[in-house]
Specification:
The termini are far apart. The relative contact order is 0.13. Strands 3, 4, 5, 6, 9, 10, 11, 12, 13, 14, 16, 19 and 21 form a 13-stranded mixed β-sheet that branches. Strands 18-17-15-20 form a four-stranded antiparallel β-sheet, with no helix packed on it. Helix 2 crosses helix 7 (236-252) and helix 5 crosses helix 7 (236-252). The protein is globular and about 65 Å long. The chain is 21% helix and 34% strand. By secondary structure, it is α+β, with helices and mostly antiparallel strands.
C-alpha cells in the first residue's frame, strides 16, 4: 500500500505555482525571468540601487534567495551569481529564485574592500537595517523585506577579498533547531565543497543575527553560506564551483531536473570546527610564510611583520593546531586586521552547543 501510494504520487504532476511573484516594483509571471532593481532612496546620504533577477517557475516549489556582493570586491561570487541566471529555465523551474548578484555597488565601483565606502559600514553586518538609517542600513532594510523575508531558503555567496588568501568552504551554521540544522546540512552537502566549517550560533544573541545568514535563520529560513576564490580573482574553477553549487542546491530542493549520466562519487568531507585569529596590533607590513590550506602546529611561525622601512618587528605564530583557512595576502595590515585564521580539524560534528 505504501509503495502504491508513492508510485501514484510520483505520477501526479506538480501543482501550478502562483501566477505572479513580486520583488519591489518588479513582477514576474509564471515561466518568466525578469531583471529588476531595488531603488534605495536618498536619506542622510546618497541614493543607490541594487540589481537583481527574478526567475518565477511554472510549478509550485521553494523560494530561494541568492545573495552575493555584500563585499563588492569579492568578484568570483558576483560573477557566479550573474552566470547562473541564464542557466535557469523559468519554464522548467518549480518555485522561484531571486538572485541579487551585487549588493554593495559602491564597494565594487570604488574597489573598496569589506565596507561600503559611502558610510563605512558593513553590508553583511547590519541586518535588518532601517529605512531611516545611512545608505547601508536603508539598503539592507530593502533586502530584508523584499528578498530574505519572501524566501524559504537563503544562499549567501562569498569568496576571498583582495586581501584574503582563502581556501574554499561552506558553513554549516547550526542554531539548535533540528529542522533548520538538518535542512542546512543537506544543502551544504549538495553544494559540493569538500570542506565544511561547523559553526554553532545562539539566535537569542542579537550579535548572531546581524549578518544576512543569521538574520535569515532568526526568521526560520534554511541557510547556506559558501565561499570559493581568493585575492578577489575570478579563476574559472572557483567561479564554476560556486555556479555549479547553486545549481546543485536548486536540484536538491526539487526545483530543477539536471541530467547526470552517472552518480557522482561520494564526497569526503573535511570538517572544520572553531577557529582562532591572529590580528595585527598596530599598523605594520605583513609577510606570510605559509600558504592557505597548510596544516600547522601551535606556535609554528606563519609569517612576520615589519615596519615601513622593511625592518622586522616580530614573528607571527599559529595560535593552535589546525588548518589555515585564511591568511592575509597583501603587505598592508592595520591595527585589528586579521593576519591568519586557523581552524580546528574535527573527525565529525558533535551536537550543537549553545555558544
Amino acid at each position: 500500500m505504501i509503495i502504491r501510494a508513492l508510485f501514484v504520487g510520483l505520477c501526479i504532476s506538480a501543482p501550478l505555482g502562483a501566477q505572479t511573484f513580486t520583488v519591489g516594483s518588479t513582477t514576474a509571471a509564471a515561466g518568466q525571468t525578469v531583471y529588476g532593481r531595488l531603488d534605495v532612496p536618498a536619506g542622510v546620504d546618497s541614493a543607490t540601487f541594487i540589481p537583481f533577477a527574478l526567475i518565477h517557475g511554472v510549478k509550485a516549489g521553494k523560494t530561494v534567495a541568492v545573495l552575493s556582493g555584500a563585499h563588492g570586491t569579492e568578484y568570483a561570487s558576483i560573477v557566479a551569481a550573474q552566470r547562473v541566471i541564464p542557466r535557469i529555465d523559468a519554464k522548467r523551474l518549480s518555485g522561484t529564485v531571486i538572485i541579487v548578484p551585487l549588493i554593495n555597488r559602491a564597494s565594487f565601483e570604488r574597489m573598496r574592500v569589506h565596507m561600503n565606502p559611502v558610510d563605512e559600514k558593513s553590508m553583511n553586518g547590519n541586518y535588518p537595517g532601517k529605512p531611516t538609517g545611512t545608505q547601508t542600513e536603508r539598503a539592507l532594510d530593502l533586502i530584508a523585506r523584499e528578498v530574505i523575508q519572501k524566501a524559504d531558503v537563503v544562499v549567501d555567496l562569498h569568496n576571498g577579498d583582495i586581501d584574503e588568501n582563502l581556501r574554499p568552504y561552506s558553513y554549516w551554521t547550526r542554531t539548535g533547531s533540528a529542522a533548520l540544522d538538518s535542512a542546512g546540512l543537506v544543502l551544504a552537502n549538495a553544494f559540493g565543497l569538500d570542506h565544511i566549517i561547523v559553526r554553532d550560533v545562539d539566535l537569542t544573541n542579537a550579535a548572531s543575527t546581524r549578518s544576512a545568514s543569521g538574520y535569515a535563520q532568526s526568521l526560520g529560513k534554511v541557510v547556506l553560506v559558501a565561499e570559493a576564490g581568493r585575492w578577489a580573482r575570478t579563476d574559472a574553477g572557483d567561479v564554476r564551483s560556486l555556479e555549479d553549487g547553486l545549481l546543485n542546491v536548486f536540484t536538491s530542493l526539487g526545483m530543477l531536473t539536471r541530467a547526470t549520466p552517472a552518480p557522482p562519487a561520494p564526497m569526503r568531507i573535511i570538517w572544520m570546527g572553531e577557529d582562532a585569529r591572529v590580528r595585527a596590533d598596530s599598523n605594520v607590513m605583513w609577510v606570510a610564510t605559509v600558504d592557505r590550506d597548510t596544516r600547522v602546529k601551535a606556535g609554528q611561525v606563519v609569517g612576520y611583520t615589519t615596519d615601513y622601512w622593511g625592518r622586522k618587528i616580530a614573528d607571527v605564530k599559529s595560535p593552535k593546531d589546525g588548518l589555515v583557512s585564511f591568511i592575509r595576502s597583501v603587505p598592508s595590515a592595520w591595527s585589528g586586521s586579521t593576519l591568519i585564521t586557523v581552524a580546528d580539524l574535527i573527525a565529525e560534528p558533535g551536537k550543537w552547543k549553545k555558544p
